[in-house]
Design a protein that fits this description.
248 residues; alpha+beta; Creatine Amidinohydrolase; five-stranded antiparallel β-sheet; four-stranded antiparallel β-sheet; binds magnesium ion
Length: 248
C-alpha cells in the first residue's frame, strides 16, 4: 500500500533528510586517498548520533554498518572495512537516518583524488539521470514516468541501468511500496499524488547492466567488473515541484 504523509510526518522526514544531507557534507571533506571505508562509517555514525538521530541501515536485514560503501565495480551494499581508498577510485556511499520514526535515504558517488574522464562522465550522467527522474515526480504523472526518464537519459549516454535493485517508497519504514525501477515504459503504475514520498536511486554501470553478489552475501558488483555509480534522494510529491528532502 502506498501511504500519503501528513504535514507532521513530512516534517519528521525533512528532519531525517537534513541529517542525511549533513552526513554527506562531512563525507565530502573526509573522502581522499588513504582514508578507510571503516573510518567513513564511524564518521557517519558519530554525526547521525550527534544529531539525536539513528542510523537506519545498521541491523536492517542484518546489515552490520551505518553506511554502505561501494568502491569502483561495487554497485551497492559494500560493507565498510579496512580497505583504504586510492587515487582514481570512485566510492558510492548510501546512508539512511531515522528521526521520530521517519526516514531519509540518500546516496552519492564521490571521486577519490583525480579520476579519469570516463569515470567523471559516469558520475555526471548518473547524477543527471536522478535529476531527470525527480523532475517527473509530479502530481498526476505515473510512477513509471520516473523510471523511463532515468533509463532514457542513461542509455542515450551509452551506460546501462541496474535492473536487480530499485528505488522505493519511504516513510515510517525505510523501504515501503511502491518499488521505483530505473527502467521501463512510461505511463504505467500508480498515479502520483501529493504526500507520496519516494527514494529515487539510479544505479548506473559503465558496461553491462548485469550484477552479482559476492560471497559475503552483501556486496553487489558488476559482472564485467567495470565501474558503477549510484545517486539517490528522498523526495516528496507536492502540488507543485517535487521537494527534495535529503538536500540542504
Ligand atoms: Mg539508499
Ligand atoms: Mg534507498
Amino acid at each position: 500500500m502506498i501511504t500519503l504523509k501528513t504535514d507532521k510526518e513530512l516534517s519528521y522526514m525533512r528532519d531525517a533528510g537534513r541529517v542525511v544531507a549533513g552526513v554527506f557534507e562531512e563525507l565530502a571533506k573526509a573522502i581522499k586517498p588513504g582514508v578507510s571505508t571503516l573510518e567513513l562509517d564511524t564518521l557517519a555514525e558519530d554525526f547521525i548520533l550527534s544529531k539525536g538521530s539513528k542510523p537506519a541501515f545498521k541491523g536492517l536485514y542484518g546489515f552490520p554498518s551505518t553506511i554502505c560503501a561501494s568502491v569502483n565495480e561495487e554497485v551497492v551494499h559494500g560493507i565498510p572495512g579496512d580497505r583504504t581508498l586510492a587515487n582514481g577510485d570512485i566510492i558510492s556511499v548510501d546512508v539512511g537516518a531515522e528521526v521520530n520514526g521517519f526516514f531519509g535515504d540518500s546516496a552519492v558517488t564521490f571521486p577519490v583524488g583525480e579520476v579519469d574522464a570516463e569515470a567523471q562522465r559516469l558520475l555526471k550522467v548518473t547524477e543527471e539521470s536522478l535529476s531527470r527522474g525527480i523532475a517527473q515526480a509530479v502530481e498526476g504523472s505515473r510512477l513509471s514516468d520516473i523510471s523511463y526518464a532515468v533509463q532514457k537519459y542513461v542509455e542515450a549516454n551509452n551506460f546501462s541501468v541496474v535492473k536487480d535493485y530499485v528505488g522505493h517508497g519511504i516513510g515510517s519504514e525505510i523501504h515501503e511500496a511502491p518499488q521505483v525501477p530505473n527502467f521501463g515504459r512510461p505511463g504505467r503504475g500508480p498515479r502520483l499524488q501529493a504526500g507520496m514520498t519516494l527514494a529515487i536511486e539510479p544505479m548506473v554501470n559503465m558496461g553491462t547492466y548485469e550484477v552479482q553478489t559476492l560471497s559475503d552475501n552483501w556486496t553487489v558488483v558488476t559482472k564485467d567488473m567495470k565501474k558503477s555509480a549510484h545517486f539517490e534522494h528522498t523526495i516528496a510529491i507536492t502540488s507543485g515541484k517535487p521537494e527534495i528532502l535529503t538536500r540542504l
